[in-house]
Amino acid sequence: MRCFCCWRDHSRRQRRPAISSNPEPLDSLPVEPQSRQERLFLLLSIFIGVISGLLVVSFRMAIEWLNVLLLGSSIQPHQLNLIFVPALAGIAIAILTRFVFPQVTGSGINQTKTAMYIHNGYISFRTVIGKFLLSALAIGSGYSLGPEDPSLQIGAGVASLVSRRFGLSKARLRLFAPIGAAAGLAAAFNAPISAILFVIEEVIGHWSADVLGSIVLSAISSVVVARWFWGAEPMFRVPAVTLRDPRELAAYAVMGVLGGGAAFVFARSLEYLRPRAQRMRSTLRMMQPATAGLLVGCIGYFGLPQVMGAGYGTIDQAMHAQFAWKMLLLLALFKLIATTLSFSSGTPGGMFAPTLFVGAMLGAGIGSLGKIFLPHLTGSVASYAVVGMGVLFAAFLRAPLTSVFMAMEISGNYSIVVPVILANTIAYLISRALQPTPIFEFLTHQDGLWLPSMEEQREESDLHIEDALQPNSFPVLAGSGTVEEALNLVRQDFSHVIVRCAKGLWYVAEKDEIDVLRTAAAKDEDFRVARLEEKIGPARTPMLFPDLTLSSALPYFHRWPLLPVMNRAKRGALEGTLSLENVLRRYQQE
Amino acid sequence: MTATTQRFLVRDSLAVVSLTAITAVLFAVTLFLFRSFEAHRASLAKYWAHQGLAALQTNQPANAVTAYRTALSYAPGERNDELMLAEALGEAGRIDESFNYFTGLWESRPGDGLINLEMARLATKQLNTQDAVNFYLAAIDGTWEGDAIERRRATRLELARYLIQQRELVQARTELLIAGGNAPNIPDLDITLGGLLEQANDPSDALTYYQRAVHDRPRDADALAAAGRVAYALGKYPQARNWLDRAVREHPDNGKNSALLAQSERILQLVPAENLPVRERVNRILAARAIAKLRMSGCAAAPKDLTARWAGADATANASALLTDPDRQKAALQLIYDTEIAASQHCGAPTGDDALLLLLARSFAQTEETSHQ
Q1: Who has the most CB within 10 Å: A97, A291, A357, A549?
Q2: DSSP state at residue A204
Q3: Closest to B310 in 3D by CA, of B287, B279, B339, B275
């Protein structure tokens, strides 16, 4: 019998990356009822949501406590601690990452994805603790990183830890990682829909009905817990947007263009610096967090302390139009630099908050500038800032669907949807054109991993049956007619004949079968007058339609040399035929 | 139920109970930490708001801006701190930032009276008259916390002052009359209204408010002096003398009031009012004619037709002729007044009794004009 009191022992015993696809359960349990796992799956999703929510609340508190403790309650330029605190924290982070928590570097999203696809959902308890402590220390001491991605990994770690206690199958264990990830992200963002969509877009990488219900349950549970503590207010307060003049959409479109460009610059900066930093000798790599901390601290010391930390306070100030447009654009630029330095140094922390920060500054800057030159613009600076956040999210993180819902959820404002969709789409398309590989995918490739992604799926174009469909050139016989009538129709030497059977089904007979029929009919009078349908085999061809994927037809060629394709609107009507040769030829044309 | 199923049931139940217990403990710990965290944030917000106020009071708006920004980072959305921050930005000379900040607040609360008032003040600094007036009006119609009636009236008076400054006297007068119409009888407010109405070129209504103030506070020297001054300007000399006399009695050291009182008394000695006994009236006309004649003799640039009139019967009629003929009295008076007005136009500003006669002449002309209309 197992219980949660024996937590530690179990975790040790099971802590082995299950790279092989061994179908055996994790321990030697007797055969269990299938319904048990399904019931537990849903119940555990709620527990995972609640525990993740509590941990994320604690995580945020830890960041703020550390921030006040290390940098003081009012961060201003020209305070010396802005320089030496991040540098000292960087040394501590480097030592702990090297010797105690080796798995905690990076944002947490790719690590969660790796756990799901490579390690059967396994994330160690040590990694969860390390991620919590080191990310809190990094963000609290001023590194330009965010708490959302670590929250996502903490949630996934909690899910992994909880699910392992129940001895579920490997397939189930794998699914728990995204469930916990959604819970962690939902609590960090106070935005359940965005969290669910992001996990589907970025962590799972494809739409999966198996896990959707559990993801929703865990995300909702964690948000309920987070709201119990932080309140139900959206992250930012934005007045309703009224588009009185459709021409104002042009301003949002411009923002989409600029956002796409900014995302490109951001991605290229990371793509340039991170591999170079990782190629350095291990002793030099140990110095990287401290160096990054020092440089970020210098940015703060010499006038822009707003770029330090997650920066939500500064986003709020920008939304309340507290900065002039020049300052906003300057903040966007230096946040981009500070984030590139912080992230490339391998310091644990997320990319969400910096992305939102850069987007908000850019949006607010464009909004402020627009109001100077086009005073008739009705959108507030805050609405431009929210759209800007969505734009960078869509273009940099390449999660277009999430970006739209995120903009609405964090502002609690659904009137903003039209500008958000327009600007995000433009930015996303520009980013895809300029930078074919999304940033998270690039980072996994850099780490030597090739994981599935939604973006990859978007690039793929699935072939359909209609792409390989050929007009029918074989005789079609009525199954309701006699064998003699049928044989009289097949005078020529066809390789196949197609038989129309009852209920709109079909049968395909090869030449050998026809020859057998012909021989039998020659010998037996009764056989000749019997119905053709009764004398052919009982099997029928599968029901295939032109819009189905071409791969869906492949399993049937083992039994049928030729597959009739039917019309969806008119049952029994033949659209054409499909042969293995046609299918292969079509695939080879790709 | 099979033995295997039973084993799973017991095992899972125990695991779920353990998980529930762990969740409960985690919740309790988080709650404890969160309460402590919130209390600390609240105290930091309070501390920095206090620092901001202190900085504003010591005329250090830049420090106040920093302090209020910090306070708001610990208590986001705290209305009072937001407004103070916007004010501090304005006082620090960061007008655009302040305006932007107030615009942001205004967009989230467009009906807030205080925000509209601050927006109006910023618009006045930006020399944007139309926006300023619109924001003032929105502030008057907006929502206020606390004594809304009082705040709306104060805002309307501020608008009136601004309009007077912009020389929009008609609109200013309208606003003042609305403010006065809804105002309770408070002497200080009446004095303020009277003063502003005087500036808005409406001495008549100003006198009404001064009178009300004097009625409620009969020994208020300021109200008495103001009422006397306006009454004197309106040609209501007996009332002017009465109020000025009382004002001087309250504050004998005020030389200005004393001088005006002396002028009032003298003018009352000069004025040939129709309700006087005929002899007294004629004596005053004769005295005034002598003064005017002297003024005329010293004014070589006077129009010729006026010089000709001084050679005629109106200038020479004696007391007995005037006593029996009211028309001659009027004609003599007209000559006196015309002389004083013409002399003031052609021969410089009058002094002494001539100045007082000029006042009477103008008052008479205005009365005549009004009666003709």
Answers
A1: A357
A2: I
A3: B339
Stretch A43-65: mean pLDDT, rounded?
Answer: 95
pLDDT at A9: 36
Taking the CA of residue B73 and the nearest CA in chain A, the distance in Å comes to: 6
> Does B12 contact A at CB distance below 8 Å?
yes
Q: Inform me whether the C-beta atom of residue B28 falls under 8 Å from chain A C-beta atoms.
A: no
Assessment of whether the complete model's pTM goes beyond 0.80 = no
Number of H helices, E strands in chain B: 19, 0
Alpha carbon distance A416, A387 (integer Å): 8
Q: How far apart are CA B59 and CA A385, in angstroms?
A: 33
Q: Tell me which chain A residues have a C-beta less than 8 angstroms from the C-beta of B33.
A: 58, 61
Q: How far apart are CA A561 and CA A496, in angstroms?
A: 9
pLDDT digits (tens, 9 = 90+) for A108-165: 888 888 888 888 889 999 999 999 999 999 999 999 999 999 999 999 999 999 888 8
Its ipTM equals: 0.78
Q: Does B208 touch chain A (CB under 8 A)?
A: no
Q: What is the pLDDT of residue B372?
A: 62
Q: How confident is the model at residue B364 (pLDDT cuts 50, 70, 90)?
A: confident
What are the Cα distances from residue A436, in Å, to A190, A231, A266? 31, 40, 14
Instruction: Return the percentage of chain A with pLDDT > 90, whole number.
Output: 53
pLDDT of residue B1: 59
- List phi, psi (to 5°) of B132: -60, -50
Contact B107 A239 (CB under 8 A): yes
A239 or A465: which leads in pLDDT = A465
- Closest alpha carbon within chain A to B98: A322
Q: Cα(first)–Cα(last) distance of chain A, in Å?
A: 55
**At a CB cut-off of 8 Å and minimum separation 6, what does A473 contact?**
A577
The answer to whether the CB atoms of B96 and A322 lie below 8 A apart is no
In one-letter notation, the amino acid at residue A301 is: Y
Q: State yes or no: pLDDT of A10 exceeds 60.
A: no
Shortest CA gap A96–chain B (Å): 25
B106 vs A: CB within 8 A? no
DSSP A528-586: HHSBHHHHS-S-----B-TTSBGGGGGGGGGT-SEEEEE-SSSTT-EEEEEEHHHHHHH
* Token pair belonging to A577: 């035929």
Pick the residue from chain A with its C-alpha nearest to B15.
A3
The C-alpha atoms of residue A133 and residue A129 are separated, in whole angstroms, by 6
Chain A residues in contact with B21 by the CB 8 A cut-off are: 4
Which residues in B lie closer than 8 A to residue A1 (C-beta atoms)? 10-11, 14
Work out the angle at residue A224's Cα, subtended by the Cα atoms of residues A223 and A230, and round it to the nearest 5 degrees. 80
Closest by CA to B185, choosing from B220, B158, B154, B210, is B210
Residues of B in contact with A322 (CB under 8 A): 69, 89, 97, 100-101, 104
Decide if A368 and B21 are in contact by the 8 Å CB cutoff. Answer: no
DSSP-based three-state secondary structure for A146: strand
Q: Report the pLDDT value the prediction gives residue A12, as an integer from 0 to 100.
A: 38
* pLDDT tens figures, B328-358: 888 888 889 888 888 888 888 888 888 888 8
Locate the chain B residue with the closest alpha carbon to A238. Answer: B108
Distance from CA of B154 to the nearest CA of A (A): 28
Res A4 pLDDT > 60: no
B30/A58 touch (CB, cutoff 8 Å), yes or no = yes
User: How high is the pLDDT of residue B153?
Assistant: 92
A69-99 pLDDT, tens digit each? 999 999 999 999 999 999 999 999 999 999 9
Contact list, A320 vs chain B (CB under 8 Å)? 82, 101, 104-105
From the list A68, A166, A321, the residue facing B101 with the nearest CB is A321
